[in-house]
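Table 4 source record.
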Amino acid sequence: MRRLALIALPLALAACQGESRTSASTETTVDGQTVAEVEATGPWCRPTPNGMDMTACYITLTSSTGDRLVSVISPRAAQAQVHAVSTEGGVMSMTEMADGLNLPAGQAVALAPGGDHIMLTGVTVPLAEGDLVPLALTFESGSQIALEVPVRADAPAGEPAHGAH
């Protein structure tokens, strides 16, 4: 049933029209009060390069209680993975974070150009500047965030623009 919910969430997003959601948060109720658990801000994806079926997306996640991003899915790609970027001997490499992305309580964790990021592979239709990409993020706590992420050629104002992943 949970797998069905994970598949249905981004498909429902793709079918929706209207205002884009480029920031969101999960919430839970503790002792009758609503508490934000994970906040997602500043998401954006790069256009797909000519002839390629992959691209990178970036976002900043802040968990008030500590959590872990364990899954990302999108109806616009066959696969979405969180990639760690490392440099060894002057060579940059990317590897999937098989255990997910740790979100320490109260600390903003940025997936940004030149660093860790969400990699979309098997993009079904090329992504162009101005498009919106539905992403569904699932956390270890079971919380989910659904976003419509804008495609931009460059980082939004105030964001680092180095590196192209």
